[in-house]
Amino acid sequence: MTLYYEDDPADDSTPPQLPPLLSAVAVPDGQDVLSKAVALAANSEVGTVFYSENTERMEIAVRLAPEVPTRQAGQMLFALMIGLGDSIGALAPPEVAVTYQLPGYVMLNRGRAGLVRLVIDPAAGTNDVPDWMIASAVVRLAASEHDHKKWSESAGVEQTTMKEEGGGFISRTRLIESSCRHFLVWVNRWQDDGFRPLHDSWMQRLEASAPIDFEGSQQVEWVGLDEEGGALLKLDGKPMSVMPHELEIVCGSPVLP
Predict the structure, then answer these.
(1) CB count in 10 Å sphere of residue 111
(2) Taking the mean position of all CA atoms in its chain, how far away is CA 163?
(3) What is the largest CA-CA distance in the chain?
(4) Whether the Cβ atoms of residue 80 and residue 135 lie closer than 8 Å to each other
(5) What's the N-to-C CA distance of the chain in angstroms?
(6) Phi/psi of residue 196, nearest 5 degrees
(7) Domain carrying residue 168
(8) Is 203 part of a structural domain of the chain?
C-alpha cells in the first residue's frame, strides 16, 4: 500500500500550488520547457518554475541565482535528482525503487524514467559566480504505443514510465508540487551543511550497474564522487574528475526519448 493515493487527483488544468519562494509559469504543450526557461533566464524572477502543460510528462525548469562559483553551483544537479527521487518515493508504491545514473538520469526499477539537467550562464567561468542557472527535470508519467515501439527498436538501457511501475495514479500537478518542495529542502540542507549530505544521499541510490553514456567509444569505469561533486572516472584506464556542470560536455547531452 502506498503512503499517498490520489482518490481525487489534482486538476492538471490549474497552476501547481508551490511554496512561497517559487512561482509557476505554464509553458504550452509542444514547447521545450528548458529552452524556454533559458531564453527568459536573464529577465525572469529567481524562483520561477516553468512547467509544461503536457500531462503525460512532468517537465519543470527552475530559475536559480547562485551565490557560489560555477564549480559549486553545479552541485544543484544532485539536489534536484535527490529531491525528485524523494518525491517519487513519497508518492509511488513502495516497490518502486528509485536510483540515479550520470549524467542525470532517474531510474525506476532500473528503467530510465526521468532526467535532470543544468544550464549555467555560459558567460561564467568555473571560478566565477554565474548570474543565473536553470535546473530542470523531466519524468515520464505515461507512454504511447509509438513510444514503446521506438524504445524496442533502439538498443541500450530499458525505458519505463511512472504508470508502468505502478504510479499511474500520480498526477502531473501533484508531482510538480512535491518535487519542488523536496528540492527546496535539499537546497536548504546544502546551504546549511554543505555538499556532504547530498553526496551521501545520492550515493545510496547510485545505479552503478547501468552504463555511463560517453561520446565516442571510450571505456569508462565508475569510481565515485569527490567532495565537490566531481564524478571520479577512469577513461580508457586514465583517472579523471568531471565536475557536474561539465558532464554534458564529456558525456554528450542526455536525452529522454
Answers:
(1) 18
(2) 18
(3) 54
(4) yes
(5) 30
(6) -55, -50
(7) 23-209
(8) yes
What is the rounded distance in angstroms from the CA atom of residue 62 to the CA atom of residue 37? 8
Give yes or no for a cis peptide into 103 (omega within 30° of 0). Answer: yes
- Asked whether 64 and 133 are in contact (CB, 8 A), the reply is yes
Instruction: Output the domain CATH number for residue 92.
Output: 3.30.930.10
- Closest Cα to residue 25, out of 65, 72, 60? 60
- Cell numbers placing 27: 509553458
In the chain, the number of structural domains is 1
Write down the pTM of the prediction. Answer: 0.93
Query: Tens of pLDDT along 40-87?
Result: 999 999 999 999 999 999 999 999 999 999 999 999 999 999 999 999
**Residue 86 and residue 237: Cα distance in Å, rounded?**
34
Residue whose C-alpha cell reads 547501468 in the numeric block: 210
Within a domain: 117: yes
Q: State how far the Cα of 32 lies from the Cα of 30, in Å rounded to an integer.
A: 7
